[in-house]
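Q: Structure tokens for this one, please.
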Amino acid sequence: MEGYKVIEVKQSVFADNDRKADALRDRLRQKGQLLVNLMSSPGSGKTTTLARTIEALSPELKLAVMEADIDSDVDAAAISRLGVRSIQLHTGGMCHLDADMCAQGLEGLAAGDADLVFLENVGNLVCPAEFDTGASVNIVILSVPEGDDKPLKYPLMFEVTDLVLVNKIDVAPYFDFDLDKCRANVAMRNPRARVIPISAKTGEGIDEWVSYLREAVASQKTGTFAKEAPANSSAAHYPSE
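A: Here is the predicted structure, written as tokens:
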């Protein structure tokens, strides 16, 4: 008989986070507040896309933004200059946010009256996908220079997303990027995920993206917004044998 036992600590961490994320999602649903989790690699254009989105929506919706980074307050400063309530979250070296951190950020942001809250997650295509933040919507921004094969290389990120924004579509002619192939690769990982090509610089595709957000906010307020169980639950990390 073996004289020791094995405890799956990481599994326990994920399961605990999933419970907290579900509780936070329920609280936001009851308030009619939509929390959107923006994820991407560094340099994909998250902050620029967010600024363009704020310009399009701020006249009609109350917006707030949580900026997550390992260090610095560059992004929060940029967003605050747009006249939107923002807060900078430092992760202390960690490459992701979890539900607890997100809840703390919402409390510090004092965003109780906001219709729509954006969480700009840490720039990374791996760690942020593993932790459910409690957001109602997960969005991945994939930029053209990164290549159309990223859904194949980072499967979990594209499995947990609800929508993929293909940014910098205006420079597609100068890169070896195939939008149809990108759509097929996304569908391979997640057939439910919608793909919208955009250019945060020129404004191309922003109307379609903003319309998606308007509909999601309206559905959240009426209690008709339906989100399937997040794919990044503990069951996704540890499939039953």
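A few notes: The chain has a mean pLDDT of 87. The radius of gyration is 18 Å.
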